Amino acid sequence: MIMGSKAGPAPILSIEDLQVSLFTRRGVLPAVDGLSLTVSAGETLAIVGESGCGKSLTALAIMRLLPNPPAKIVGGAVRFMGRDLAALSEREMQRVRGKDISMIFQDPMTSLNPVVAVGDQLIEAIRRHNDVSRHEARDRAIELLRQVRIPDAERRFNDYPHQMSGGMSQRVMIAMAIACGPKLLIADEPTTALDVTIQAQIIELMKELQSSSDMGLIIITHDLGVVAEVADRVAVMYAGRKVEEAPVEALFERPLHRYTRGLLGATPSAQRRRGSRLVEITGNVPALSDLPQGCAFQNRCPDVLDRCRAERPQLAPLLPHRSAACFAAEKELSRDAAAIGA
Amino acid sequence: MLTLFFDFARRFARNRAALVGLFLVLVVVGVAIAAPWWFPRNPLRIVGRPEIWPFMSPRYPLGTDSLGRDIAAMIAHGARTTLLIGLCASLTATIIGITVGATAAYVGGWVDELLMRLTELFQTIPNLIFVLTIVSILGQKIEYVTIAVGVVTWTPIARLTRAEFMSLRDREFVQACRAMGMGSLWIMFGEILPNALPPVIVLSSLVVAGAVLFESAVAFLGLGDPNVTSWGQLIGDGRTLIRSSWYICAVPGLAIMLTVLALNLVGDGLNDALNPKLRDR
Amino acid sequence: MRRIIIRRLVQIIPLIFAVIVMNFVLIHLAPGSLFDVMTSEQQITDPKMLDQLRHTYGVDQPVSVQLAKYIWSVMRLDLGYSYRQNAPVFDVIMQQLPATLILMLAAIGIALLVGVTAGVLASIKVNTIWDNLISLGAVFFFAAPSFWLGIMMTVMFAVKLGWFPVGGMRTIGVDESAFGAVLDVMHHLVLPATALGLFYAATFARVMRASMLEVARLDFVRTARAKGLSGGRVVLAHVMRNAMLPIVTLLGLQLGTMLGGSVVIEAVFSWPGIGSLLFDSVMSRNFPMVLGVLVLGSLLVAVCNATVDLLYLRLDPRIKAR
Ligand SMILES: Nc1ncnc2c1ncn2[C@@H]1O[C@H](COP(=O)(O)OP(=O)(O)OP(=O)(O)O)[C@@H](O)[C@H]1O
Ligand code: SF4
Ligand SMILES: [Mg+2]
């Protein structure tokens, strides 16, 4: 299989059966439910799904930065280079954050401290994990600013966040994230808050940085163009669960889960223009507090079966290198197989 | 209207501390009202041996001061002075504050500029020094103390009123009133003010607490009205005896502290009840 | 930067001008004429001196001329002559000013130290017993009259325990080295500064707690944690730094109240500052001195206000852009 070529080496990150619950006044809600993912060195995994399906919580759970209260990891393991992050002490985890795993966020304008010069925020990140003098850190910081293509880096070094545009701020965020050469970078909707032209540049930059460093990348996005352009594999989430995972080509070729189909539009080979957003699907996501028995997508699914209402579909390896949790897809594939077999 | 009141009471009651505050305020008010019946004779009259400690003599439950005056009687009568001055000063401050703030916001332009400079001026003048100056020049009378305290505490009310008016000024209902040809004064005080009032009331209730503190300081320095009993004055009188009978200072001080504390708690409760949207902050 | 400073200082001028005019109005509100106020209360009988005063204040001239003369004399820092101290009002005030400044600075220091620490602690341990205790303490100190606190502290720490002196600024009759003198003043300073500072500490604690909780939810704090910073470093370098901004604003707004508060505290502790001077002048109906303190006190607050504003400018880079 050509598409799976990058999935060869042992994964640097492997999430197993992750459970994140929200402890609210209305009860304990399963915001992320039994999620498993892997990312290998140099690989890019895209996570897509509607707003509120638990993408950000997943990312924050890996970083152990969940907003607590209300969110908490209640089960599963997050294995990074053989260590279970969920079991580390806060102290040990601090040594992982920013050094081994970095993260950048959706809104660059609010993600930087408004009263500290950006250069100092960079230096802080560098000196946290490297035993260097302030002077050395400064040189390194300026070099990083150049690396993320900030013009006039030396002058910009002393700027405050409010003096920078959104695109510039996101570049600074990226510089900060890669400052200590992380093995994994998590980008949570890194371009959503930016202008379209800037979005392209930022994505370009991330791709370039990744290719030169063999860093694993998890990119959370709503933008199918971004998915098509940078992702090796795609995980689709719905209501806190992973409902489908596939190499990017295969997914666009033939989405299996009915929700994925909805996302990509009716035609299997969706347009892959940049900026084409996930298609809006009619109907509402059920609230976490009253998920139905059976498939969470049943109220919006065009192909819903009786079985879908009674039983929850489990993620199954329906085709090589890919899996989906959908009864209709299962049926369809077994029909195909029967047809070939006949 | 009634349901509105119940709604208000329910929200107020949800704040436990505010209920405690309300209870304390009611106690102080009760004592103030009952004082003339409870201690019908002049509280400044000498009744017994000086410096009897509290709880020592059943006739003088809070003891007697350096001259042999009944501290309980003076505390009870002092509550009248304290509450009266606190309320009147707060009322003065509220009237000045609302007038200045409303005019500034409604008229705008150079009037606004001028009134805001005036507000700044009164914020800059060290307020207690100003009160002492007024009292020393005009005379040590309870009216002057009240007005002086009102004059130094109106600035926050003016700022708040102005801000509220600003946000209400361009609302639809005000535009409609203007279109109907209503007079400026009527729109200002008949239409906008009632809507701007809730947060202003909260602030006024807090100003009462501040005014009580001011009054006590003035009386403590011996610049209050010498003809009425006041808690601050009591502390001032007792100061010379702190080596032997510190309770003479302690008792009225506790009274001031509890009153101010109670007023603050009530203010917080009012805030919760009148501005539900601010509550979660 | 220098332009901003100058512009901010220039803004003080109309303010002081207004204070002077208000002074003048106050004098005219007083029962009796300006001249009565300025002289008779001080029992001046020397006819030569009366003549001179009549001339200085232009008593026989119209009000507008009187006002002009008054303003002119204040502008030359001529605030009148105090017969009680037998010295110009301005000189007397200037002599007493340092003591008040020391007291205020110490009180501000204590208020910031105690208030900010308590607020930060309460916010870190939010909704725990610590938080509740701190809130309770804040509520009490917010309600206690500072002069009463001062007296009670005197009873406790000066009279009963003997740790600190009862009042004054220096031990009388002891000739010490410069260092010894500083220590001596500091020893005298502890009680009055604490009594004055605790009220403001209570205010700061409440505001700081709320402000910390607000800032802690912001995105950049998450970024700081994502960098791998320790909890302490995140709080100190990121949360506190932003949460301090409202405290600085508040401090500026409260300087006037603080100077007023120091009057009472100085009276309690016989601290030889302008508060004691004012108290004495009010008691002896020494009006030129009272008015002089009002003008110079306002000027002091205005200058301190400007200083705080400039400090804010340094702390919050966003302001300069506007
Ligand atoms: N701090 C919080 N308090 C309460 N609920 C939360 C909190 N953070 C997230 N949630 C809830 O958890 C669920 C998952 O949220 P999450 O932020 O992971 O969604 P998402 O997939 O990242 O959505 P988006 O695309 O909008 O970023 C949502 O239902 C959201 O309402
Ligand atoms: S499992 Fe059933 S309801 Fe769910 S997506 Fe597949 S077909 Fe639709
Ligand atoms: Mg998200």
TrEMBL record, chain C:
The keyword tRNA-binding does not apply. InterPro entries: BPD_transp_1_N, MetI-like, MetI-like_sf. The chain crosses the membrane at residues 12-30, 99-121, 133-159, 179-202, 243-269, 289-313. It is found in: Cell membrane. One of its GO terms (biological process) is transmembrane transport. Keywords: Cell membrane, Membrane, Transmembrane, Transmembrane helix, Transport. It is a multi-pass membrane protein. Its main location: membrane. Pfam families: BPD_transp_1 (PF00528), BPD_transp_1_N (PF19300). GO terms for cellular component: plasma membrane. It comes from the Bacteria. PROSITE patterns: ABC_TM1. Belongs to the binding-protein-dependent transport system permease family. This is ABC transporter permease. It comes from Tardiphaga robiniae.
